[in-house]
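Quick one: structure tokens for this chain, please?
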Amino acid sequence: MEHSPLIAVIVIGIVLAFVLGTAAQRLKLPPLVGYLMAGVLMGPFTPGYVADSHLTLQLADIGVILLMFGVGLHFQPKDLLAVKAVVVPGAVLQMAAIVGLGVGAGLLFGWPLAHGLVFGLCLSVASTVVVMRALQDRRLTETGRGKIAIGWLVVQDLMTVLVLVLLPPLAPALKGGGVDLGALAQSLALTLGKLALFAALMVVIGRRVIPAVLHYIAHTGSRELFRLAVLSVALGVAFVAAELFGVSIALGAFFAGMILSGSPLSQRAAEESLPLRDAFAVLFFVSVGMLFNPRVVVEAPVALAVSFAIVVAGGVAAYLLLRLFGVKSASAATIAVSLAQIGEFSFILADLGIGLGILPEKARDLILGASILSIFLNPLLFAIAARREASPRVPPAPDMPRPAPEPTHLTGHAVVVGYGRVGHMVADGIKDRLPLLVLEEGAVGDPGIEHIRGNAARDDVLAAANLAQAKLLFVAIPEAFEAGQIVEQARKANPGLAIIARAHFDAEVDHLLALGATRVIMGEREIAAAMLDFAKAQ
């Protein structure tokens, strides 16, 4: 292992994450709890193998790049502009509130004012990876609340870039000395100039060059080259953004994806980057676990509790600000919970502050401890908030529609789960033959189609679809595990229901049939069958 630390980190990290993630899933816990524990076991504070933390963090950065690139592929520039009135003042005010609490905590700990200021900054930045995973797991990235959460993250990233640039010239003043105003103004002007230049290049050149390159490669017919082209765009733009323009890799990758989002190839690009994205995103959580020193729980429990309370208070501040800007109560709760944690930028800020002498070394353990606790609890809190948003037991606020899914009155109807490309075509083909109901978390966009918003894997959403009196169920979503849950519940609700699902692999076909699907369509088989039918007719 000493001669091949990179291979050791990848192999041991992924295997441990798989084993402990599976154990967590069996215990009804989110898999990322297992990923974090894998990191703790690989870290320097527990006995046994100690992974190279520097390598692990770099591998985790690849996961961040691919994750944000994938988010950008489904996020149009107009989506960001549509929520700017909420996310710009909201993110800035939330960060300011947390910084104020950090200063207060610093005074409580007996730290100088500067230490508390930097400590608060470290606790004010939500983890991009955690928020994105939470939104994607529940298929919320393209919903209104998902776009607000993503826009909030973009503003936080921009603010953090400015903080990283301003801290070095301000450090002497924060330590009680003077400040070179000329150097400060120069640093600020240079940073803003680089950001503006990067944005201009992405809009003027990137919008033309990136789609043109991908279209050219797509026409070569080589899937391997297309996959390499997608990875080159995501990783290359993120790297150039960070090295030449001082933009964070996450923000650079997000802009690369957003520039490509208008292209017809955006969906295919997202599919090609998905496997690597998930693998490297797991290594992010492993890297966080490696940095955590469990001794802080025993040595500084009060300080750790205060730090964690500040992170939670940040979520409360986000909720209040969202309500102030007119976001519905249940949606504001879901967004606020997703933001009530800290991650990758917090560690970068902490390292910079310690290096500049404006943050004590022991603050790092408090920040890491608060991060671990918040990431551990975030999926649970997110699930509670999402359930509250969909629960019929929650009385609606006077200014919001009832969040519970209203039961349909349709009978003898067809139900389509998922309104992507496949679901849209199925709905168009059957809506003139049978009464139609669509289950989809996002908007459907066709006022003539009855639509229940929500995750069809949840009991209350399926109950509202009246499957007991339905005639057909089309499970058009591509995720086999989630589709399996839907098929299994639907079969229990109506043993005679005709259920048609989709799959990508033979194992997925067998899985869905075993859970009760009447028929499972696998794309490759149907293409081959259509080709043979055509050949027979000649």
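The domain at 414-537 is CATH 3.40.50.720 (Rossmann fold).
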